[in-house]
Amino acid sequence: MGHLKIVVDHEKIDYSGPFDAGDLFKAIENFVFERGFDKRQDKDFEQNTSNGKFIEWQISPWKKITDYIRYIIKIRLLGYDIVHTNAVLNGKKTKVDSGRVIIVIDGFMEYDYDSYWDNKPMLFFLRTIYDYFIFKAYTERFEQRLVHDINHLNNHIEKFFNIYRHYSVISKQG
To answer: What is the pTM of this model?
Structure first.
């Protein structure tokens, strides 16, 4: 395992109200796919509680940038008290989900992901010198691109939730 550097630490989105859970998952996965990331599913957990459903969903998309660096984005979604509801938008009745959603996004850069430089202590030392001094100016551009992608994902999710802010919940189903 190579060196893992945290670039974005706990970018958080907190939303309460009506939304469509299936469309939210699809929107996140489509965004990740459009950016050229390969998806890795870490968790997909759902539990029925007395107030509704609890959902925990986590993916870790990754993308090779060079033979030495790859991006890893960890997206963790927690849904609390999610119930099916009837809502009204512009006089039309639709069925959506309602509850609280917390999304936490972390961004990592992994150096030497194939562990070529971990075999011997001298190579490990040279890799450290290379990463922190020689290769630093080159990797700063990659960090900026990763931050840009995560900010774009954050805006994409917030726009998704903005659509559902205009829905008016009229009744909740168990």
So the answer is: 0.87
